[in-house]
Amino acid sequence: MKNKDAISDKVFDIFKWTFLILFFVATLYPILNTLAVSFNDGLDSLKGGIHLIPRKFTLDNYSSVLSKESLRQGAFITVSRTVIGTISQLYVTALLAYVLSRKEFIFKTPVTLLFIFTMYLNPGLIPGYLWMRRLGFINTFWVYVIPGMLSAFNMLVIRTYMNGLPDSLSESAQIDGAGYFKIFYKIILPLCKPVLATVALFIAVGHWNSWFDAMLYNGFNERLTTLQYELMKLLSSVTNQGASVEDMKNSGGMVTPTSIRAATTIVTALPIVCLYPFLQKYFISGLTIGGVKE
Question: Is Membrane set as a keyword in this record (predicted)?
Fold first, then answer.
């Protein structure tokens, strides 16, 4: 009986690791292929056959991408909205979560239900646009920050984590004369680093990858374009293979829309990829919130 169990376990392990390896390869290959194309000569890339290693190594694609004024301006706006939007939303959401996690707040249940209600109803695209125009946010930078300053889902995640903290910490601080704001800044926030880092990563990725709001609210304002919106326009130009000579030539080399797309994709994804390892330990612990009840 034990031999049968051991054999079944080995068979299961073989299938498990085979599946995981295939899944890993299927996930990693498109990224490595895009990276190889981005470092390959543009005209040579049109021949195909590039997999994991560039056939004709060149930096012309990245030189062309970094020389575009629209991409540089989009990168500046994207970094600005990511930093400001992440900090502002994280602060406002954490402050609201703290208020709704306090047992002495008698309206915490109806207020929480009100925010949950907003998660299931969306006013729609046209009413949202009209509302943004009435508030004067069209063709402004703050349309990227203020409308999304509060997230009901993130508030529930942070509140759940705060509810798991011992009440004795806050009670001891109140006995020593600390007010609610002092308790929030000195006790609650330091203890909430895992969940705050997790939510901050969610918010930052959302801001970094967002392009639809730039197209909808600031589509005709080149000063407020975003990096992802410029990438979207570049990726959608599939019929623009016959680009102008000025766009094709760069530092004596040749680039094509295919190679430019690959280089732009790597440039836009690289900051988030570099950020993730620093938040990984908080990200993993934050995802286990509510997973175990003791």
Answer: yes
The span from the CA of 122 to the CA of 204, in Å, is 22
Write out the H or E segment, with its range, that includes residue 254: strand 253-254
**Alpha-helix residue ranges (DSSP H) falling in the chain:** 2-38, 42-45, 60-67, 69-101, 108-120, 125-135, 152-163, 167-175, 180-183, 189-191, 193-209, 212-218, 227-236, 245-248, 257-287
Residue 113 lies in a domain: yes
CA gap 252, 243 in Å, rounded? 16
- The pairs formed by 268-277 with CB atoms below 8 angstroms and a separation of 24 or more are 268/208, 268/227, 268/228, 268/231, 271/79, 271/208, 272/204, 272/205, 272/208, 275/201, 275/204, 276/201
- Examine residue 70 and state whether it is found in any structural domain, yes or no: yes
- The reply to whether 79 falls in a domain is yes
Could you tell me which residues come within 8 angstroms of residue 74 by beta carbon, excluding any fewer than 6 positions away?
Answer: 225, 226, 227, 228, 229, 230
Residue 229 near residue 208 (C-beta atoms within 8 A): no
Based on the structure, what is the number of domains in the chain? 1
Query: pLDDT (tens digit, 9 = 90+) per residue, 15-53?
Result: 888 998 988 888 888 888 888 888 888 777 777 778 888
Give tens-digit pLDDT for 126-163: 888 898 999 899 999 999 999 888 889 999 999 998 98
Instruction: Report the CATH number at residue 176.
Output: 1.10.3720.10
Which domain covers residue 98, as residue numbers?
A: 59-294
